[in-house]
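Bumping with the actual sequence this time:
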Amino acid sequence: MKMYQVDAFSNALFKGNPAAVIVTEQWLDDVLMQNIALENNLSETAFVKKIDAEHFEIRWFTPTAEVDFCGHATLASSFVLFKDFTPAKTIHFHVKNLGIFIVSQAEDGKICMNFPIRRAEKVEEYPELLTQALSKPFKNVYLNQQAFIIEYETVQDVLDEQPNLELLKQLGSLRTAITAHCSSVDVAITATGEQYDCVSRYFAPAMGINEDPVTGSIHTAIAPLWAERLNKTELIAYQASARGGELYCKIVDQERIEISGYGKLYMQAELFLD
């Protein structure tokens, strides 16, 4: 059985977020898929089942659990499908509980994913352990079905944060994202020459991911938040992990968002599962 590893949200190796991808005709046993994800020890391993040349089902596993949505592993899976499994330029992922993800690839290789917006709402009450786990002052707390999203005063605070992961783990399935608006005076991450609209980091220790390198799914909440605040429909987001990654975000309407990025193939491997 063939497996791919792709660096998602990057066009350079060893940047972005690595994801493993396995394409099958039928689903593997759930226990086997979880064991493969544990063996890979990446933030996500994606399993894709072909329906036809333009339609696929997809599931995502961290080293410890199946998750309901993963953006970077969707990009990695799309990269693999466009490369080796379909001549189509647009494909459709059928996702349990989330409907259809429409994905297309541009001539330059950029992959555009159409996702449902998972809007975050501002909350006044939140667990005290958030305050205990985070060392920097923050302005606002938002919440969607995936994570607490914490608005920081400055990009530098986002970059410097060293959270108490053991405390964050107590949030269970709710993850934690921290974010700040990137103004013209924020020079800490402008080495690439891009002018970013927002900078974020993402922590999911209860899911076996202390810090996720680049997280497409959470930007279905972060990008609409900053789009409304900045009165923009298109934003460039940067996720400031050690590897780093860029996400090109476009608000399509009140319900949908396009998140785009590049992928870079790192490895093709043969699995021996007998």
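The tokens above came from a reply further down the thread. The chain is about 20% helix and 40% strand.
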